[in-house]
Amino acid sequence: MPRKLRERIISWLLYSQPACSIEVFDFEKKWPQIIPFLDHAKVEAALVAEGFDSNRGPWTDSAGDYWQLQASMRAFADIKRGQYAGDWDNPSPQDLEKVQKLETVYTPKRQLFEWYQCVGGARRLAPFLLELGQLVYPKLSWGRFTGRVHSCAYGSDKTGNIKVIFDILLFKTHTAVEIIELCTQLYPTPEATIRAYAAAESRVRAEEAALAAVLRPKRIKPKDDPDPGFGPDTAGTF
Q1: What does each C-alpha distance from 42 to 114, 141, 151 come to in angstroms?
Q2: How far apart are CA 48 and CA 50, in angstroms?
Q3: 3-state helix, strand, coil in the chain (%, to 5)
Q4: What is the DSSP letter of 202?
Q5: How are beta strands 162-166 and 151-156 bridged, if at all?
Q6: By the number of CB atoms within 10 A of the CB, which of 47, 55, 195, 236 ranks highest?
Q7: Whole-prediction pTM value?
Q8: Residue whose C-alpha is closest to residue 126's, from 12, 207, 49
C-alpha cells in the first residue's frame, strides 16, 4: 500500500469518525452468529482458495508450535488440578506419553472459533473473513485491509465510515485503531508493531518456561548424607 494512501486512511480514520464508533467483532462471544454461515459455499470456497484443508482446519497451518504449546499448557493445567492420575512431580515415560494423548483433547475443534485461527496467516484468512462479514452484516459494504504486517476484513456504512472489523486473530488483544494501523503499515518495524510482537514473544516465552517447570523432575536432597559435597556428581542439583 502506497505511503500516501496509508497516511490518508489513518488520518481519515482518526479525524473523520470517532474511533470508539468502530466495533471489533468479538468472535468468542458472538460465535453463534457465525455458525450458521460456516458451511456456506462462498465461505468454504474462500478457505479452499487459500490452500486450507477443510478436514484439518486452518489452525493446523499456524506458524511455529503455537497451538501445540497451548494444548500442552491446557493439559497440564488440568493435570495439576488433579483431573488425571499419575506421578506428575516425577513423570515417567508412560506419564509423558499420556500427556501427548491428552493434548489432542485440547487442540482446536471444528465449529469453534479457534479452529479458524491460523496464527501467522492473517492474509490468507482475510477472504474468509470478508465472506463471513458479508453474510452476517449484509447491509454494510465490505472490503479488506491487506498489508505486509497484518490483514483483516471490515464493513462500512453508506457514508464510508467503518462500522465493524472482522479480525479472528487480534479481536481479543487489539483495538480497532491498532488493527488498522497494523494492516496499513508498510514494514513490520514501527513502534506499535514492535510492541505487539514483543508482547506475543514474551507471552510465549513465559508459557514455555511454565511448561518446562512442570516437566522438570524435582531434585531431592539425600537424607542419609549430612554433607553431600560439591563434587561433579552433585554440583547444581539443589
Answers
A1: 20, 17, 19
A2: 5
A3: 50, 10, 40
A4: H
A5: antiparallel
A6: 47
A7: 0.65
A8: 49
Inter-CA distances, 227 with 41, 175, 221, 235, Å: 73, 59, 10, 12
**Contact by Cβ (8 Å): 96, 149:** no
Q: Which three cell numbers stand for residue 173?
A: 488483544
List per-block mean pLDDT (blocks of 10 residues) for the chain, which spans 238 residues.
53 53 92 94 94 88 76 71 64 70 74 90 94 96 89 91 93 89 67 52 62 55 46 35
Residue 218, CB half-sphere, CA atoms under 13 Å: how many?
7
CA distance 164 to 184: 17
The grid cell for 43 is 465461505
Q: Which grid coordinates are listed for 45? A: 470456497
Give the closest residue to 16 by CA, choosing from 229, 170, 160, 228. 160
CA dihedral for 76, 81, 82, 83, sign (positive or negative): negative
C-alpha cell at 138: 449484509
